[in-house]
Structures are given as structure tokens and as C-alpha cells.
Specification:
By secondary structure, this protein is an alpha+beta fold. It folds into four domains: 301 residues, no CATH class; 94 residues, Calcium-transporting ATPase, cytoplasmic transduction domain A (Distorted Sandwich); 130 residues, Rossmann fold; 118 residues, 3-Layer(aba) Sandwich (Calcium-transporting ATPase, cytoplasmic domain N), CATH 3.40.1110.10. It is built from 25 helices and 26 strands. Strands 14-26-25-24-15-22-23 form a seven-stranded mixed sheet, sandwiched between helices. Strands 16-21-20-19-18-17 form a six-stranded antiparallel sheet. α21 links the parallel β24 and β25. α8 runs antiparallel to α11 and α9 runs antiparallel to α11. The two termini are 33 Å apart.
């Protein structure tokens, strides 16, 4: 079952004819009015405001006219206009529900107001002696039927206004993109529309202009304001080789940018799509509400009919009072608030997250993360910057340093490992000519090997060293131990039998790692660090940031196994990582959080993406989740409170003791107030700053 994004009611995808696809996401609706509202929200909102004004205004007018004993026929005329103009909304919804073979909230409203209007019609026709007296009607429900329609439409209008306000922030992102781009083709500058941009095009962006697409800087230097997308208040330095995002603002220099993504593949389009998907996705608590709502409508109709039969034929209550009970039950039981209780909070929370650079792919992830009690952190690129620097080459052989660097760089140029690139760059700075490599092989979790000028060389970690049974002397052990105790990462360079040299790398901590970890500890969350580095390096980094539990020498598949084990122990596990080797663990965690600077596969696997590459955003995501979940529980309480507490009252339970029959107007106001309370409560999230 899908969720109607407008009214919040459940929809059977296989039965409903009302659906629409936007940005690759298919939306299902319970009625044509909800579909129209989705396609043209502002137009629909204006129309809804007009209908609400007509309903409430007519009801108040009838109240005044009744005071002056105006002709019932004139009052019926006004009530009929409201019943079949603003009230047509509910008839359309009821017909659509019947076509889709399901019952929605419009069924209750249409039946209730129709009963009131028919009763009023019979009263007028009897008073004019047009028909015989088939009912002992003492008056019509002119004011009641009109104000019921007006009150319900008021609640619906306020709900739509809230949703529009919440989604404005996302829609404004699309408006950030300029309508045209300046493309360099055949040595000429051409202004083309964004639709005409192609991957590989070169665009020129001058100071003060908006960057039209996602791309890579190929020439120029500038600072770019990315606040609209990542939330970073300070402009970010951009130079050759750096990525830029469409919709951000070039502040200072001229940039030439190679287009890498267009259309729906751009980050902004993905943000919009991701948040819309999050709104549609059903969390466990929402699925519970859906299940209750799916049986609520038929049960309510049954209660209304049985109550009417009881009071009219068993208790022998006057027909008009028994009918009042039926109408009140139908109106007050309308599950509007139940339908929007979860979507309203999810909509605002996911929008709030997106504006702060926290992209939440699904409402289910938002619900899961609030329960997290264990967070697993990858070391490289998550706790540390993931940009290791070659600090030193310690020579344990008779090879000249230059020869060691030349041999190592000749091998490393075929590897995509960050450490390998640092060796190649060092050789480039030394202007060394690299050698031809034969039989190159990369061994997962160990390192690389290759044959150069007839000799085989190896570069890797301790596993590579152990595999070839290379023994370290005491002096070598001491040097390596001291370096690793300082948190340095070591790559071993060896031949078939001897250790030639070690390459010493340092990977600095992210600026906010210590603060983020301290904050997570305050939230009573256990922290675990995973790394492929050895025990001493892992211990040094863990101690520096304040993490007690860590796993060293971990292969990619082992990361996933550790996450599974933690889950089997009854924990709700969040995995935070950035690389390809983190993808299995991200997928196996209850919630995977991908650092935005990481690989595409890590981002695809993660349920939450941190666009600002900041661990502090993990803290923000958890706080936002906890706040949103709190709002959802409050919303569901109010929704269930109104429906469960007031249905017995509407059914007449107080009549035998206090002679009280609930007026349908009060029922409509109570029902509308439940929706308003849910919308208002959810809207408070807009002001929340995690």
C-alpha cells in the first residue's frame, strides 16, 4: 500500500487510477483532488481557501438569518450551494474511493453532510406541504451542514499551507539554477539553456554568477558560496581538479568547468527526489497507523449506523436526534489527523535536514536512527581527513632513496589506493622517469606486486610482510613501533626476501572529529572504530579521539561481519563510512551514513548522506531524528485521542446520564481541531535547530 502524499491516506497502487511520476518517483493518490493539488499546489491552495471562505461564511450567514426567522426555503438554498459547491470536494473523493475499491476520509464526510442536508430538505418540503410528514422534524440542519463543510475545509487548507511552507525550501533549490549557461564551443562563448548542456561541455562562470551544473574545475581559481546546498556559511576554495555543484555562486575568480552531471543526475535534483521519496516511504510507526486507518472507515460507518438504529428503534429517540448521532459519529471519526500525523513531521524533518546538508533518503532511516545505541566509524576518511601525506621514506637497504622512490612509484601508479597516489606524486615532484612494469597484480587487503626489469617487488601492509615471511630485526621493529604509536601508517616495500624500505604516511584528524565523538558519548551512544591499519596505529588514533573499542587489520567483508555481530547482540547500529570498502558495512547496518566526499558506491549504499563531510552532522542527524520521532508520537497521540475519546460521545453515550447529544457542528470543529493540532505541532520543527 502506498501513501497519498497530499492527504496522508493509504492507497492501493494496483487499484487507484490517480497517479503521477515526477523525477523518477511514482506518486499514488486517493482522489483526483489530491492529484490536482500535487500537480498545481498554489492554484489548488487558492481554490481551497475560496471554498473554505464560502463554507464558513455561509454557515455564519445562516446562523444570523435563523435568528431573524428567515424562510427555511431560503436557508436550504444557501445550504445547498455549500453542499454541492465546496462540498463537491468530498463527493468527488467518495466517488474516487469507490472506483478504487477503498474507503477514505471523504466517504465519512460526504455521508455525514449528505444526511444532514437530506434531513433539512425533507423538513423544508414537509413545512411547505409538498410531501407528507414522513419525519417528525422540528427543524433543519442548515447551519450544521454548511459549518461542517467549512470547518473541515479549514483544517485541510491549513494542512496544505503547512506542506507548502515546508516544501518551499526544497523547491527554492531548483530556482537557484540559472536558466542559461555560457558554453565554450569552437572558441566561442554561447549562451544555451540548461536543457542543452551535455556531459563534457566546458562552461565559463564569471564572478558573481551562479554555477549552472555539477562539474569539475579545469581552469581558474575562486571561492564558491555553497551555503544553499551544503549549509557551509564560509565560501569554499575551488581550484583545478575540484568539484563544483550546480546552483552555487562563484564569488571571486573566473572558472572554466567541465560538465560532469546534467538534469536529474545533479546533486540538487537528487536532493529533491530523495526528500520526496522520504515523504512517501512508510516508517514502522506509520505502517501501524496505516493499518489502523485501513479498518477505521468501515468500522466507523458501522458504529454510526448501529448507533442510529439503537437510538431510533430501541431507545425510541426522536428521529432527528438519532440522525444527529449518526452524523456526529461520521464527522468526528474522520481520520484526517491520523493520516497526516507521520507525513507532516517527516516532511518538515527531511526538508530541514536537506537544508543543513543532511540528505535523508527515507523516512524509515529517520525513524531508525533515533534508536541508535552503537555507532561504528570507519577511520580513514571519516575520523581522519582521508588525505594521507607521504611524510618520510625510511631506507633499510643499499638502494639509493631515488631508486626506491622510482621503483615504488612505477608500481603504485597502477593502484587507486590513496597512499599509492602520494608515492606517485612524490616521484613526479622529484621529476623521476618511471619504469615499465610487468605482471602487475593487486591483492585485496594486502597490497600490490609487479615485475620490474626481471625482479619482483611488493608494496603492502603487514599481511604482505607476513605472507613472504620477511623477518624484521630489532632496530627495524623499534623504528616501526615508534612510528605506529604516533598514529603513522606504514607501507612496506620489499622484494622476495628482504624489506627494502618503509613509506611513512600521516593522515590528520578531521577538525571536528573529537568534538563529534564527545557529543555522541554525551548522548549515551557506544562508539566503535574500524580500520585496515594495524593494532598500534588504530590504538593511537582511537586514544586521540576518545574511542575505547576498535577493530584493527579489518578487511572490507569483515567490517560487514562486525556490524552484523553488533546487530545480533540486540543493538541498533549506525555505520559511518566513505569508501568502497565501507559499502558492505553501510548496507548491513540499521542505518548507513555516507560521508559526502566519499565514493559513489558508498553514497548509494548509505541511507543518509552528509554533504558537508562533517562528523558533527551525525550528531545533528540523530538529534533531528529524535525530535521528529517525538513529534510523530505526539501527533499520533492527539489523532488517536480525538477519535477514540469522542466517538463514544458522538454515539450518544452521555445521553442516558446527562441528556447530551453532540451537535454535528461541534463534532466537525473537534475533528478539524485535531488536524490543526497535528499540523501546528509538526510545524514547530521548522524552528528547530539541531
Amino acid at each position: 500500500m502506498a501513501k497519498d502524499i497530499i492527504c496522508g491516506m493509504y492507497v492501493d497502487e494496483t487499484k487507484t487510477p490517480f497517479k503521477c511520476t515526477r523525477k523518477g518517483v511514482t506518486y499514488y493518490f486517493c482522489s483526483s483532488s489530491c492529484l490536482d493539488s500535487f500537480l498545481a499546489p498554489m492554484k489548488e491552495l487558492r481554490r481551497l481557501k475560496i471554498l473554505t471562505a464560502i463554507g464558513i461564511g455561509s454557515g455564519l450567514l445562516i446562523a444570523i438569518l435563523e435568528f431573524y426567522s428567515v424562510s427555511p426555503l431560503f436557508l436550504l438554498l444557501i445550504a445547498s450551494i455549500v453542499q454541492f459547491y465546496p462540498g463537491l470536494e468530498f463527493y468527488k473523493g467518495m466517488i474516487d474511493a469507490i472506483k478504487a475499491k477503498q474507503a477514505n476520509m471523504d466517504v465519512l464526510i460526504a455521508l455525514g453532510t449528505s444526511a444532514a442536508w437530506v434531513y433539512s430538505l425533507i423538513y423544508v418540503l414537509q413545512s411547505m406541504s409538498i410531501i407528507p410528514e414522513i419525519l417528525k422534524a422540528s427543524g433543519g440542519y442548515f447551519m450544521e451542514s454548511t459549518l461542517i463543510i467549512g470547518a473541515i475545509l479549514l483544517g485541510r487548507t491549513l494542512e496544505r499551507m503547512m506542506k507548502h511552507k515546508a516544501s518551499e525550501a526544497l523547491e527554492s533549490l531548483l530556482e537557484l539554477q540559472p536558466s542559461k549557461a555560457r558554453v565554450l564551443r569552437n572558441d566561442q562563448e554561447l549562451d544555451v539553456s540548461l536543457d542543452e548542456l551535455e556531459i563534457g561541455d566546458i562552461v565559463l562562470v564569471k564572478p558573481g554568477e551562479k554555477i549552472p551544473c555539477d562539474g569539475e574545475v579545469i581552469e581558474g581559481y575562486s571561492f564558491v558560496d555553497q551555503s544553499a546546498i551544503t549549509g557551509e556559511s564560509i565560501p569554499v576554495e575551488k581550484k583545478k581538479g575540484d568539484e563544483v555543484l550546480g546552483g552555487t555562486i562563484n564569488k571571486t575568480g573566473v572558472l572554466k568547468i567541465k560538465v560532469t552531471k546534467v538534469g536529474d543526475d545533479t546533486l540538487m535534483s537528487q536532493i529533491i527526489k530523495s526528500v520526496e521519496e522520504a515523504i512517501l516511504s512508510r516508517t514502522p510507526i506509520q505502517r501501524l497507523a496505516d493499518k489502523i486507518a485501513s479498518v477505521f472507515v468501515p468500522v466507523t460507518i458501522s458504529i454510526a449506523i448501529l448507533s442510529f438504529i439503537f437510538w431510533a428503534f430501541t431507545w425510541n429517540l426522536p428521529f432527528n436526534l438519532a440522525l444527529t448521532v449518526l452524523i456526529s459519529v461520521l464527522i468526528i471519526a474522520c481520520p484526517c489527523a491520523l493520516g497526516i500525523a507521520t507525513p507532516a513531521a517527516l516532511l518538515i524533518a527531511t526538508t530541514k535536514g536537506a537544508k543543513q546538508g543532511i540528505l535523508i533518503k527515507s523516512g524509515e532511516y529517520l525513524e531508525r536512527i533515533h534508536k541508535a545505541n552503537v555507532i561504528v566509524l570507519d577511520k580513514t576518511g571519516t575520523i581522519t581527513q582521508g588525505k594521507p601525506v607521504l611524510e618520510d621514506i625510511v631506507n633499510f637497504s643499499n638502494y639509493p632513496r631515488e631508486q626506491i622512490l622510482k621503483l615504488a612509484a612505477s608500481l603504485e601508479r597502477f593502484s587507486s589506493h590513496p597512499l599509492a597516489q602520494q608515492v606517485v606524486e612524490e616521484a613526479s615532484r622529484a621529476k623521476l622517469s618511471l619504469l615499465e612494469v610487468e605482471k602487475f597484480e593487486e591483492i585485496a587487503g594486502e597490497g600490490i606486486l609487479g615485475t620490474i626489469e626481471g625482479s619482483t617487488y611488493y608494496i603492502g601492509n603487514e599481511r604482505m610482510l607476513e605472507k613472504h615471511r620477511v623477518k624484521l630485526n630489532e632496530a627495524q621493529k623499534k623504528i616501526i613501533t615508534e612510528l605506529e604509536n604516533k598514529g603513522k601508517t606504514i607501507s612496506y616495500f620489499l622484494n622476495d626476501s628482504n624489506l627494502i624500505a618503509i613509506f611513512v604516511f600521516s593522515d590528520n584528524l578531521r577538525e571536528d572529529s573529537k568534538q563529534a565523538i564527545a557529543e555522541l558519548k554525551k548522548m549515551n551512544i557506544d562508539l566503535v572504530m574500524l580500520t585496515g591499519d594495524n593494532e598500534r596505529v588504530a590504538s593511537a588514533i582511537a586514544k586521540e579521539v576518545g574511542i575505547e573499542k576498535f577493530y584493527a587489520n579489518v578487511l572490507p567483508i569483515q567490517k560487514a561481519e562486525i556490524v552484523k555481530k553488533l546487530k545480533e547482540e540486540g543493538n541498533v547500529v549506525v555505520m559511518v563510512g566513505d569508501g568502497i570498502n565501507d559499502a558492505p558495512a553501510l548496507a548491513n547496518a540499521d542505518v548507513g551514513i555516507a560521508i559526502g566526499s566519499g565514493t559513489d558506491i558508498a553514497k548509494e549504499t548509505g541511507g543518509i548522506i552528509l554533504l558537508k563531510n562533517s562528523l558533527l552532522d551525525v550528531v545533528k542527524a540523530i538529534k533531528l531524528s529524535r525530535k521528529a520521532y517525538s513529534k510523530i508520537k505526539q501527533n499520533l497521540f492527539w489523532a488517536f485521542f480525538y477519535n477514540t475519546a469522542l466517538i463514544p460521545v458522538a454515539a450518544g453515550i452521555l445521553y442516558p446520564f446527562a441528556g447530551i447529544i453532540l451537535n454535528p457542528i461541534l463534532a466537525a470543529i473537534a475533528m478539524a481541531f485535531s488536524s490543526i493540532s497535528v499540523v501546528t505541532n509538526s510545524s514547530l520543527l521548522i524552528r528547530y535547530n539541531p
